[in-house]
Design goal:
Helix content is about 30%, strand content about 10%. It is of the alpha+beta class and about 100 residues long.
Length: about 100
């Protein structure tokens, strides 16, 4: 709350949280699981807008494959991506369920 949550609690300004994410195997990593659990509770029920349905946010990243760039080959698996290679469903069901 001290960094930006107070803006919402005190109705001073809107806040849109963007570009957070976790890898497909986040449940296998204690630190990632703890971080996401804390973030999820803050964003939904325990944060500044918990009584109003939670925060507005955008998850990074939607596509399940890389589209090119300098460090990842085009078409390689994007370990944070929600959608499968064809964009017809989730890459990993439990990953999608956590973000949903």
């Amino acid at each position: 709350d001290q960094n930006w949550g107070y803006l919402l609690r005190e109705s001073r300004a809107p806040v849109f949280v963007t570009e957070f994410g976790m890898g497909h195997e986040w449940t296998d990593d204690d630190a990632a699981r703890q971080w996401f659990d804390l973030w999820s509770r803050y964003a939904q029920s325990e944060g500044p807008l918990g009584d109003k349905g939670g925060l507005d946010f955008a998850y990074w990243q939607l596509p399940g494959v890389h589209i090119g760039g300098t460090s990842k080959p085009e078409g390689s698996e994007a370990g944070f991506g929600i959608l499968n290679r064809c964009w017809t469903g989730p890459w990993k069901e439990r990953h999608f369920a956590a973000v949903e």
